[in-house]
Specification:
By secondary structure, this protein is an alpha+beta fold. Helices cover about 40% and strands about 20% of the residues. The chain contains twelve helices and 13 strands. The strands form three sheets. It has a six-stranded mixed sheet. Strands 10-11-9-12 form a four-stranded antiparallel sheet. The two termini are about 35 Å apart. The structure holds alpha-D-galactopyranose.
Length: about 400
Amino acid sequence: MIMLQPNAPLSDLVADAHRRLSETFQVQGAVVAAAPGRVNLIGEHIDYCDGFVLPFAIERYVVFAAKANDSSIARVASEGQETVEIDLTVEQKISEPKWSNYLRGVIQGFKDRGDRIPGFDAYVVSSVPLGAGLSSSAALECAFATLMEGLVDTALRTSEKALLAQKAEHDFAQVPCGIMDQFASAFGQQDKLIYIDCLTNEPEIIPFSDPSLSILVANTCVSHDLSDGAYAKRRKATEDALKIIGKQNWREVTMDDVLEKEDEMGDPMFRRARHVVSEIQRTQEAAEGFKKNDFSKIGHLMAASHESLRDDFEVSCHELDLMVEIATKIGFEGGVLGARMTGGGFGGSTVTLCRTDDASQIAETLHQQYLEKTGITPAIFATRPARGAHLV
Ligand code: GLA
């Protein structure tokens, strides 16, 4: 009857990476780096609109073990993936296999800083599910950037590392993402939420350590691909809307400004703009709610955020709506404090804030009813805010 998936301890992943490195390349690992995925509690699709976001790093990690190899070539292996060989002496370009581009982007970032990366052999393992809206790519970029710090023997400021990882995603994975995922993966702290002001790139730490509260992540197991253009299209619509509104940034925009330009914007641009302004407001209120333990308020804000993403921003899907609906029906009496989709959308995961005593029962209900209605087995796990990218 166990419906909650366990989180592998980081030490197990580290041991696994060491073992596989030595099996694959016959060397013992000297440098080990880890970085987590993230979930976002609220503030969706507004990190690229000067908004606020409230994510935290999860107990799911990408781990690299590596050893310098006296050459100018990086060889990176991973289970089920083609081993990547990268010439570190040349300017990096987008290339095959696809997953190597995250590595190439980060390498180029260090080269642009003037760092000389020595040749190395590496093995990467991960417990961050792919395509689940939990930022497996940011975890990969941040873990690899941390590995580069170890190999080069340098230390970047945390925000510099996150921005370097974001640039890799922009230039090499060609997803025009905001800063949320890389910031959450880089700045994550145990038992802390990361409240990020995306206008100033300043993270503020909000404690989340009450053991009577839990967070469930429910992966609908419906996959999305943010590079298919839908994400870029949403971002473009917000940029066009801001031009029509005529303000410098979204923080200066009020709902009256949006309503005033409704006709000029037309549909769906007007609804995209309405989401941005309302979500910025909700996220600020939710951050206050977390500081004051006002869970009834947080629950309402999470519900409104989901509705806005579903109806105005149109990045939800049937499976996400269903998972949120099941959680919402369980309700406060059943221990659910709030639920919504999390991450980029078009599939992926939901986040449910709940009482710890009820977490197993809630997970079971989500699992059974979702399976019954869709025929798809979801993957549900509980997580607490975890430590961000670090050398192990
Ligand atoms: C993806 C992007 C983030 C953010 C979210 C939506 O995860 O990488 O920058 O825009 O979608 O909130």
